[in-house]
Amino acid sequence: MKLKFDAQLDYQVDALQAITELFEGMAFDRNGTGFAFSEGALGFSELGLGNNLVIDSGQLLKNLNVVQERNNVPKSRSLSEYNSPYSFPNFSIEMETGTGKTYVYLRSIFELSQKYGLKKFIIVVPSIAIREGVLSSIELMRDHFMGLYNNVPFDYFVYSSKDLSKVRQFATNNEIQIM
Prior knowledge:
mainly alpha; 5 strands
């Protein structure tokens, strides 16, 4: 038995649109060569490919306000809250339980890659049970996403400090990577 997913549910498409519209106006990174990192203290240097987020903070705030207004959410005055523990913008897409949040955030990976060339994604979960659910969702939805996004190659894995070769692969591979 194979599950069939509906790619056209209005509320999920609206959530995807809210996510992708945050980055409206950002240039598409055709090269996929976002940044280099090095471990200078160890004398070790290695090229890594990362997401190149080149968008003006004013444009990002404007995009956020458009999405908030359309969804009847109070407009933010800035990209970070006063006394926020984060020194960077962070966004929350909130959906009711049972509405397909996992589907939406997994599909947003492919949308952001297609529209803006983003390729590196890290999913943080609060428990082993949720991690296992995300892994099984990726596997269940693999063919669905491949069909929607022209068989775009992607790889996924669970971070383990015992297998850092996968982290190196995450950093250097130029296809969609999900950790």
